[in-house]
Amino acid sequence: MLTTRTIWSFCLVASFLLWSGDAVAGELSERLANFPQWEKLTSVQPASGDLVYPEWMAGTWQITSTLVDLAAPLAPDIITPGFEGNRRQLNHPVSFVVRFVKEQPSISGLKILPQINKKSPILVADRAFNSLNVARAYLGDEAVLSTKVDPDSPNRQITFLRSSRQLVSIVTARATETIPDGKFITSEVFQQLFKGGSRPYLNSVESTTAYHKLLTANPAIEADQVTAVYLSPQDPDYFKAGSRPVALYRYRLEFVPAQMPTTQKE
Length: 266
What we know:
The protein is mainly β. The protein has one domain. The chain is built from five helices and 13 strands. α1 packs across α4. The protein starts with a helix and ends in a 9-residue tail after the last strand.
């Protein structure tokens, strides 16, 4: 059975899922270093287009994701649904497959025809494929029916669940940062709406991830990811929380080249 607590657990890692301006130099790396002393990120820009990844992330990857730390900065006054349940996931790895593919650049979500597009293809996440695999890894194959990305915008997608339930995710803002030591850092802010329960549930999530290319094959890439959950204005505790997150989750990600067909699981 899909409960609100279960959906919250899944929401935390569904952000593998825009072209954007760079963040203020070093802000994202400093943000990760200052965990869990966080406030809302201010340097993000409105999301437009798709997030462009570095060439060394191209391909299909087997990812092992491990929750290594979590914090509820406003506890015991404010604790999100599922927080205590997620504590049981500490140091328990979860594996799934993702891929990053070449695509023609777009304008306002509309792809430019190759014959008139003079820009080189860009590397982006296969959001539908990735989100489906992440969702099934956390919720089970039978619980997740499909995922769909808005054809007019890579920033909006829907995950279709059993019992006519849906998780709608809309990326609203983002920033990127490239570090000379081989790290690529991204931060995306998105709104999530869970529909189909007794009442719709809305929250705001920020996912900041530092990817690091390694000189080994196993793993070939490692990443440090922090997901921060903020209350929506509709929440009765919204003004009490202010600009502070109500939950923080830190993950260690390890990427190994996947030895499997790249067709999407159905």
